[in-house]
Design a protein that fits this description.
Elements: E1 34-40, H1 45-51, E2 55-56, E3 80-83, E4 86-94, H2 95-116
C-alpha cells in the first residue's frame, strides 16, 4: 500500500476559511425556463410542491454547495442536501407557473393596498395625522396587473 505524497495538492482550488460560502448553490440550472427552490422533506411538503407543478431537478454531475463532512454520493436520483439531520430537495417550477403565482401574489397585495386608500370624496386625513401609501407601481417583475 502506497501513501500519497503530501506535496501533491488535495484540492484543485483553495477556499479561504473567512470567505462567503454558498452552501445551497447548484451549477447548470435552466433559470430561463424554470424557477428553482430547495424544499424541506418534512410532513407532506414534497407532495404539496409536486401537486403545485414543481418537479425534481435531475443531477447533472454538479454537487450542491461546497464539499462538507456530511457530503456523500448516495443512490438517490434527485438533487439533495442534508442539513441538520434533515434533507432538502432541489425542485423547479416551470417559469410559466412561477410568473402566474407571482402575479396572483401581487394582485392580493394591490387589493390590500387599495382597501387602505381613502375612497373618492373622502378625506385622506385620519383622526390625527395623515395616511399616505406609496408603491413602486410599474416596477412589477412580470408586467401590469391592471390598467390604472
Amino acid at each position: 500500500m502506497t501513501r500519497e505524497s503530501r506535496d501533491e495538492p488535495v484540492h484543485k482550488t483553495r477556499t479561504a476559511v473567512a470567505s462567503n460560502r454558498a452552501p445551497l448553490t447548484y451549477r447548470g440550472l435552466d433559470r430561463e425556463n424554470f424557477e428553482p427552490r430547495f424544499v424541506l422533506d418534512k410532513d407532506d411538503r414534497i407532495a404539496m410542491f409536486l401537486e403545485a407543478g414543481y418537479e425534481f431537478v435531475k443531477p447533472n454531475g454538479s454537487s450542491v454547495g461546497e464539499k462538507t463532512v456530511e457530503t456523500s454520493s448516495g443512490l438517490d436520483s434527485r438533487v439533495s442536501k442534508s442539513t441538520g439531520g434533515r434533507k432538502l430537495y432541489l425542485m423547479q417550477l416551470p417559469m410559466k407557473f412561477y410568473k402566474e403565482d407571482q402575479l396572483a401574489k401581487q394582485k392580493q397585495i394591490d387589493e390590500m393596498e387599495q382597501s387602505m386608500r381613502p375612497r373618492k370624496g373622502e378625506s385622506a386625513e385620519a383622526d390625527y395625522g395623515k395616511v399616505e401609501i406609496k408603491t413602486g407601481k410599474g416596477t412589477h417583475l412580470f408586467g401590469k396587473l391592471s390598467d390604472e
